[in-house]
Amino acid sequence: MGKPDDFPAETVKPLISKAELVERLLAVLPTESLLHDREELKPFECDGLSAYRQIPLAVALPETEGQIRAVLKICHEGRVPVVFRGAGTGLSGGALPYEHGLLLGLSKLKRILEVDPQARMARVQPGVRNAAISEAAAPHGLYYAPDPSSQIACSIGGNVAENSGGVHCLKYGLTVNNIMKVRFVTIDGELLEIGSDGLDSPGYDLLALITGSEGLLGVVTEITVKLLPSPVKAQVVLAAFDDVAKAGQAVADIIGARIIPAGLEMMDKKATGAVEQFIGAGYPLDAAAILLCESDGTEEEVASEVARMTEVLKAAGATQVRVSSNEAERLKFWAGRKSAFPAVGRILPDYFCMDGTIPRKQLPKVLKRISELEETFNLQCANVFHAGDGNLHPLIMFDANDEDQLHRAEKYGAAILELCVEVGGTITGEHGVGIEKINQMCVQFRTAELNTFHAIKHVFDEHGLLNPGKAVPTLQRCAEFGAMHVHRGEEKFPDLPRF
Amino acid sequence: MSEIIQQFQQTIASAQAEKRALRIRGGGSKDFYAVRLDGDVIDTRAYSGIVEYEPTELVFTARAGTPLRDVEATLAEQGQMLAFEPPHFGTEATFGGCIAAGFSGPRRAYLGSARDFVLGVRLLNSAGEDLRFGGQVMKNVAGYDLSRLLTGSFGTLGLILEASVKVLPIPETEQTLRLEMNETQAIETMNRCAGQPLPLSATCFVDKSLYIRLSGAASAVAAAQKHLGGEPVDSGPFWQSVREHTHPFFAETQAQWRLSIKSTTAPLDLGPTLIEWNGSLRWISGDGELDTINGSARNCGGYATLFRRAGEADAIQRLQPGMLALQRKIKQAMDPAGIFGPRRLHDGF
Fold it and tell me: Which label site among A29, A355, A419, B295 has the fewest CB atoms less than 10 Å from its CB?
């Protein structure tokens, strides 16, 4: 276990010592809100990407927006790098600390400030769990739509930072489509309100810009989310296929039949096998792939849609089609999908969950290539897939105690991401770049594009103190990584000196 | 097509060299929406055509100069649509202009806005560099979301060459109902309905009537119609007139204000009003001061835009000081010399 080879933790050196930082922070924080003993810091050494670990310089756990502003001002003046952390469930190492940096945790800001059922919105603090919002809205017949699989633990502030999705985002959108307003604090402690209680705001769309910015531009201290009426009914259709390509075609056929399912998931044989051993969701084990296709809405909408889905899936060559007959069965079908990650985790101690998104038509080609790469790297990979929106989650299984396996798993993951870019997709659909995919950013973007990102970063954080070295690679790093996106034979990094 | 891009790049380079302003323009259908229209026109209409469209991917990519009506006709042939129902505001509207303006129509409150559907853009920046952000896939969180930042930027941050958008199926059935009531009742009804699982796709209050459009499976629309009551009216022409501002309400010669506010806000009493989007969009006709009307909108959680006007104006929106400074810095980061559409959106930059 450790850090990626050339983790740029040392790029920003604070102007002040740890002792000075602690002294200044204690002037603005209650004693219990600042951790600086090594033992206390240990639980914060990694996020959901546990293969990479680093003990931070100190951890601040402020209780108010005022404290957050004061802490950031101190870090700004002392040029101390800052990493924000919500619930620490992120899968790309976005909350991996720095040896010389402060980790600022938002976990104490966990109040739901207001639920307005008439206007269908809720105002919450960043540490509120995603699922808690829907729980608070439920008595009013409302819910918050984005449902990342970690929703019982992950926090809404982290969801904003990562632009989290979930199984329902083909129909209901990502975080960016479901938030209205945030209170946002920049590294110099300035507070801005971005968005509005209406459906848009004046000038450039900064709400979109900061959503998914992975803690590089600032931190949200309050979020107003949109609530939707809870569907009266939901039903899921489970379809089995003897061939992955047929399952892929069935997905296209569903869309072609003008149906937008509430959820449309695919799992391959390795994934269903792992899940069946783990919880017994009742998936057919002889199938090469299964699809879960959900309909939600009014009774009439669901009845009509499920009939059409069933017809399309049968016509696409499904060997078996089952419709959930009641809510318990629907939840059982989903339980398998939702437990895919822990189920795979029981086969080998560690896995990397990749997150590439591809045009759906490329699915058979990509799955075939992923399977060939299993042999190249001598590692196993199970595939779960948000099929409706083309978001792949290959789960590469390995044992991190074996340095060589870890190394091979990293290479395997990188190869999958580069494959996604090659077929016209992206390296990350919903988990973020973080530290995990930083090198693959060099494959997806060219110099001028990265320069634009750096220019935007400079507007918010000119000293590069927020999450330095993550999400957007420096040109230097890309030059060293050496796997550049070659576009029409243009020379890469003409403005960088070469030695 | 690459020659056209080269011409654009040359124009941008010479404008940079001469510190000359450029005005990126498609069909000019949104020329009315500006503090000022400075600079020599770059006409995007030469760069036209569909780049990629596969209906089963739900992704459509076209060049900026493609006529918006052609885009919609192509999608309709495949039973699909731009779900944000962009207003054209003229027959010459282009796809690039639609994204650059970022306007959305009646369906916006239910399915999302232009920026919600934008997946990626290809852009010429102020250095003439050819950049791509986002992509042609549904989910993409690699890098900052420049595609959405550019949506609604009115050509002030760069020249959008191409854009990719998510498209959706045209609903199987649509039915519009008219219910007579006053403005207070209409606001209350719109919000109440929006909180229920009904297949709503548009709401509008005008002339003492609330119009509700239902979309979806025939059985679902019929059930909702039974639940809501009211008098069925012809869907097409009414929503078209609201979307394109050809409804008689918009015929007033005075200024037209657009207030984007909290949906439950009680009637504002600022002048004749047309309400959309469950109450969160209020069109108000009448003369007034931007600061006064914006102040009223701010008190209701939103802001005002002087959307149309007869004469000159020194501003069409007001930003809070901190926000104004930040937006100015973003403009400077993307367009350091300030060549693209100076003072189109704000007096200062």
Answer: B295
